[in-house]
Inverse folding.
C-alpha cells in the first residue's frame, strides 16, 4: 500500500471506531432522516483521499459484460471478403501459424464464414451493424466502437478474469473493486460495486464470484451480487417483532462486541464486518425504493421492453443498473451469459440479441434523457471475439465460430468517450491493421476517464506495488472527448 | 448458501471464496431460519433451573465455544436484563416474538419473557464475527 494511503486508512479506521463508541446509532438515525447525509461529498472519504488524480469525465461505470464472447463478425465488424470467400480455407498467410483452441486446432479445414446477416451503416460515423441489433445501431452516434480490441487469453475463464482483474489468474481485485477502493461510494446507503447476473438461451459459460472479488484490497470493496429472483436483495425486511430502534440496539451490541474482538485480535476483517452490518442496515431503507419498479412510467417499460418487468432478465438488470447508478453506485457490473456460439451461431445469436439489443440501447437513451450519460460510462463487450472460420460443419444456414482473441469489437458510450469507430482489422477480420487496443490499454483508459492515473494507482501487497494494469497499459487518448 | 460463497455448481470450485458482504449481514439478522434457531435455543436453555446469567453463559458457550470475557458478560447481561423488563410489560410483542418459526414449543413451563430476551441476545451472538467466521 502507498504509505500515504496507509496512513490515511489507519487514521480513518481509528476515527471510524471512535465514532462507533460515541454511538453510531445517533449518526445512523440522522442518516435515515436526512438522506444523503453520508454522501461521500459530505463525509471524509474512508479511503484513498489522494484521488482522483485529475478531473474525472466519468463518475460511474455500467459494464454490460457479454459473457461467452459475441461474434464481432456478425454484429459490428463487417467483412464482405468473408462473404466473397465463403467456404474457402483460411489462408495460411492470414493465420500465420497462430495458435487455436483445442476445439478447432485439429480441424482438417478452416472454411471461412461470411455472416448470414445483413449489415447496414448507421449514424454519422457510418459504423456498420448487423441486422440483429437494430436498437443498438440506432444509438450509433453515441457509441465509441473499438474494433481492434485484443487479449492474450484464448479460453473463457482466463479471458474473463483478465478483463475483470487485469490478470489471467484469479485473486486480483476486480475493476469495480479498484474503483470502489479509489473513489469510494457516492451513496453510503448502497454498495459501491454491485453485480447483476442474467442468462441467455445460447451456449453459456459460468461466472463466479472471483470475478468481482476484492483480491488483496479490503473486503468492503468486493462486488455485492444481487439475486436474480423476485427480490434482488434477500431478507431486507426486519422481522415484525423487531422495529428499527430495536434493530439499531441489536446492531450496536453486535458492533461493540465485534469492536472488542478487533481490539484483542486486530483482524481488519472484523472492522469490515462492522461496516458491512452498518451498510446492511442502511440498505434496508434504500434498496426497496430503488428496486421497486412501481414508480417507473409506462414509457420506461416500453423503452426497455416488457421483459424488464421480469426479475433476473437482462432487461430488468439494465433498468436496475440505471437505478443503482443514478443513486450513486460507482460500478455496476452486469453479466449476460450465452454468447459462446461454437455451433448454431445464427440461431443462438438471434436469441442473444433479442435479449440484449433493446435494453442496451434503452439504457443509453434513459441515461441520456436524465442528463446522466455524460458522467456515466457504459461499456458493452465480451472477453474475446469469434473466428472468421467455421467450427464444425459449414452448411447452408448454419455455422459455428470458435474463440478469437486477436481482434474483436467492444463499444463504450457516455462518460467522456468520443463517439465514432476506432481501429481497423484486416479484410478477413482476423488480424489488426491499425490502432490495436490491448486489455491493459482498455483498463488504463477507463481509469483515466474516472480521473485515475493507472500508473500511480497502486496497492502494495506482499512487497510489491500492484496496479489494475500490472506493468503495462496505455491510455487511448484518441477515444477521449 | 450462495450468499455465503457456496458454489453455484456451474463448475468445480477448488477453493471456496471467503467474502464479507452486507447480504450476509441481512441473512444472519433477518432470515426466519436464524430467528427460529435463536428462539428454539433460547427456549431450551430457559427450561433449565439456572440464573439468567448462567443461562446467558450457556448460550455463549454453545455458540462461541468459549467462556465470555468480563466485558462480554456485562454487556450481554445488561442488554438481556433490559429486554426481560421490556417483555414483562409488553405481552403482545412477547407473543409475537416467540411465535417465530414452526418448531414446536417446549411442553414444560418456562419463563417466557426471559426466553424472548434470551432469544434476542442469542441473535446477537449468532451475528458475532467470531461465530460466523472460522479463521
Amino acid at each position: 500500500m502507498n504509505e500515504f494511503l496507509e496512513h490515511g486508512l489507519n487514521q480513518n479506521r481509528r476515527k471510524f471506531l471512535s465514532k462507533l463508541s460515541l454511538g453510531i446509532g445517533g449518526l445512523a438515525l440522522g442518516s435515515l432522516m436526512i438522506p444523503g447525509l453520508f454522501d461521500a461529498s459530505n463525509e471524509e472519504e474512508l479511503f484513498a483521499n489522494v484521488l482522483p488524480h485529475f478531473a474525472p469525465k466519468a463518475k460511474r461505470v455500467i459494464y454490460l459484460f457479454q459473457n461467452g464472447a459475441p461474434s464481432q463478425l456478425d454484429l459490428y465488424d463487417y467483412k464482405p471478403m468473408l462473404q466473397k470467400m465463403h467456404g474457402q480455407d483460411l489462408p495460411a498467410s492470414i493465420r500465420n501459424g497462430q495458435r487455436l483452441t483445442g476445439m478447432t486446432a485439429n480441424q482438417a479445414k478452416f472454411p471461412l464464414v461470411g455472416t448470414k446477416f445483413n449489415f447496414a451503416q448507421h449514424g454519422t460515423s457510418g459504423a456498420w451493424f448487423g441486422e440483429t441489433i437494430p436498437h443498438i445501431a440506432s444509438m450509433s452516434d453515441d457509441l465509441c466502437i473499438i474494433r481492434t480490441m485484443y487479449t492474450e487469453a484464448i479460453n473463457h475463464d482466463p479471458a474473463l478474469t483478465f478483463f475483470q482483474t487485469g490478470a489471467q489468474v484469479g485473486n486480483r481485485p476486480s475493476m469495480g473493486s479498484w474503483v470502489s477502493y479509489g473513489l469510494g461510494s457516492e451513496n453510503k446507503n448502497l454498495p459501491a460495486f454491485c453485480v447483476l447476473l442474467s442468462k441467455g438461451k445460447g451456449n453459456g459459460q459460468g461466472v463466479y464470484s472471483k470475478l468481482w472479488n476484492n483480491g488483496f484490497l479490503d473486503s468492503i470493496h468486493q462486488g455485492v451480487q444481487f439475486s436474480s429472483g423476485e427480490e434482488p436483495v434477500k431478507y431486507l425486511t426486519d422481522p415484525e417483532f423487531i422495529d428499527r430502534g430495536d434493530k439499531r440496539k441489536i446492531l450496536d451490541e453486535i458492533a461493540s462486541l465485534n469492536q472488542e474482538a478487533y481490539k484483542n485480535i486486530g483482524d481488519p476483517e472484523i472492522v469490515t464486518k462492522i461496516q458491512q452490518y452498518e451498510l446492511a442496515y442502511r440498505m434496508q431503507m434504500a434498496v426497496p425504493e430503488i428496486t421497486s419498479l412501481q414508480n417507473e412510467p409506462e414509457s420506461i417499460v416500453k423503452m426497455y421492453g416488457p421483459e424488464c418487468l421480469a426479475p433476473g432478465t437482462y432487461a430488468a438488470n439494465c433498468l436496475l443498473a440505471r437505478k443503482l447508478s443514478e443513486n450513486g453506485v460507482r460500478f455496476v457490473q452486469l453479466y449476460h451469459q450465452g454468447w459462446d456460439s461454437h455451433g448454431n451461431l445464427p440461431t443462438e445469436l438471434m436469441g442473444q440479441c433479442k435479449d440484449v439489443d433493446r435494453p442496451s440501447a434503452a439504457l443509453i437513451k434513459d441515461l441520456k434523457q436524465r442528463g446522466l450519460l455524460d458522467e456515466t460510462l457504459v461499456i458493452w463487450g465480451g472477453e474475446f471475439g469469434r473466428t472468421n472460420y467455421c467450427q464444425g460443419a459449414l452448411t447452408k444456414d448454419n455455422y459455428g465460430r470458435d474463440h478469437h482473441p486477436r481482434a474483436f469489437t467492444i463499444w463504450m458510450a457516455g462518460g467522456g468517450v468520443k463517439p465514432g469507430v476506432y481501429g481497423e482489422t484486416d479484410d478477413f477480420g482476423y488480424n489488426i491493421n491499425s490502432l490495436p487496443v490491448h486489455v491493459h490499454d482498455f483498463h488504463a483508459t477507463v481509469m483515466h476517464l474516472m480521473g485515475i492515473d493507472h500508473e500511480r494507482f497502486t496497492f502494495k501487497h506482499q512487497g510489491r506495488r500492484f496496479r489494475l494494469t500490472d506493468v503495462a497499459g496505455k491510455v487511448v487518448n484518441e477515444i477521449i472527448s | 448458501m450462495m450468499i455465503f460463497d457456496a458454489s453455484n455448481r456451474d463448475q468445480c470450485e477448488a477453493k471456496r471464496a471467503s467474502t464479507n458482504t452486507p447480504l450476509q449481514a441481512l441473512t444472519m439478522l433477518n432470515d426466519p431460519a436464524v430467528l427460529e434457531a435463536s428462539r428454539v435455543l433460547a427456549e431450551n436453555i430457559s427450561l433449565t433451573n439456572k440464573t439468567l446469567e448462567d443461562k446467558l453463559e450457556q448460550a455463549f458457550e454453545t455458540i462461541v465455544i468459549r467462556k465470555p470475557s468480563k466485558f462480554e458478560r456485562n454487556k450481554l447481561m445488561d442488554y438481556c436484563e433490559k429486554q426481560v423488563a421490556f417483555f414483562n410489560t409488553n405481552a403482545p410483542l412477547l407473543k409475537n416474538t416467540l411465535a417465530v418459526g414452526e418448531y414446536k414449543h417446549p411442553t414444560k413451563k418456562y419463563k417466557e419473557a426471559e426466553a424472548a430476551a434470551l432469544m434476542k441476545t442469542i441473535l446477537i451472538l449468532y451475528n458475532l464475527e467470531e461465530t460466523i467466521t472460522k479463521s
